[in-house]
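#struct-queue
[09:14] JT: dropping the first one here, sequence first, then the structure tokens:
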Amino acid sequence: MKVELEDVSSIRKKLTIEIPEAEVNAAVKESYETLRAQVEIEGFRKGRAPAAVLRQKYSDKVIEDVGTKLMESSYPAALEEKGVKPAGKPEIEVTSLSEGMPFIFTAFVEVLPTVDKIDGYKELELERKSSDATPEEVAESLEAVRQSKGEFVEAEKTAEKTDTVIIDFDCRVNGQVIKGVSQKDYSFIVDGGAKYSEFEEAVTGLKAGEKSEFEKSFPPAYHDSALAGKTANFEVVLKTVKEKKLPEIDDAFAKDLGFDDLPKLKEKVVEELSKGKQQSETDRLKGEVIEQLIAKNDFEVPHSVVDRYFSQIAKSVLNGLRQGLANPRDVNVSSDEFKSRYMEMAAKHAKGDLMIDVIAKSEGVVVTDADVERVMQEMATAQNQPLEAVKEAFDKSEGSTDGIKSGIKHDKVFEFIFNANNVGV
């Protein structure tokens, strides 16, 4: 086998691979022998068809199979011979493939760039913002807990925002009641909780027993065929109004949550808020580090690597959409806009991870078994499981601790960078 290597760019290589004629002919002969034993041809016993008949019927298939087989064996060998470590799948172009001739093909391969050092990671412009919880944030947090502990109780009052109401409604199209749409005892919160916003407008200001109605037009593509492209009249009867009763934020409130008194509850709220703000600030600073390092270090990253990062990001975003945790800017965007937005993010992540790995090597950052066990213990605590159960789960999945090790290494590098730039961790 003859292999020639050509540098197309810093991240793209061209391998020209030539398989000798004798090896091609031997592979063709072997392929025909295998085929003869497998196929049945009319007029001949199985395994006894003449070579000329086989060539007439199967020559294209045989030469295609031979090419595939020879590529599968020669491509990895060529990579090893030339010391090329591909970052993704190759682009194959066949130059010559026929019996009685050498088999020649080219493989265009993307590789990671050779980056020996990263400039400027000890001279960054970073500033850590305060992570202290403000009185306003504490008050907002306590109010959120208070709201979650509120109970709805029936009240003799007009319905207003934040009340829960129970209604009966009839939906009519051209005077005919649409049974599959009309409903009894339909309950919702008058704060964006109704299936149609018109329901909230209809009941606001009403008392139990009072009626209202509204018209609503539906688009031709509406999912319910009984309403699609039609205008419906909704007759609403308000049956019940429930008002949200909230507890006072006092010692009794704190005790219900498991604390000795209100000051102890506030201490915990301050602690958790500060911890969250500190983590958010650390994440912001990590992003700032990557932005500044990209500006100081110019190198290409293979498209195949960026594509892998994009796939991971897209999967995460789409999972969020399915779970109702979408960023509003990701809703109703075109595929081109989505790809443009997140492909740029993917390129930054790919460059960032590569730079962090180079810095780790330069600074001798290592991940110990104790580091891995510490993280596993944190996971066990968070999941309320024994440490051994977490270890067993990882042992059953080969290579699964690689993600933990990579995360620890990156955290250590960022800690080094933060300390070098006097912003702490």
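[09:21] JT: and here's the second one, same format:
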Amino acid sequence: MERLLLTMFLPAIQRRHTILFGFPHPSSANGQRAKQFEQNKHAMTETIKRWERRL
């Protein structure tokens, strides 16, 4: 799903829109959400820091 969104929104991303990829779905049915969050935490933090520098 993330790959599809990335493909669809690449022009928007290139125009400096903000989309945070890597954030797991919060549903309790997603038993891997804590693991996914920890795996992607650094990359998501860096993305948010880049957004902050652009403000």
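[09:30] RK: nice, looked through the second one.
[09:31] RK: The two ends are 29 Å apart (CA to CA).
[09:31] JT: good to know. Residues 15 and 22 are 20 Å apart (CA to CA).
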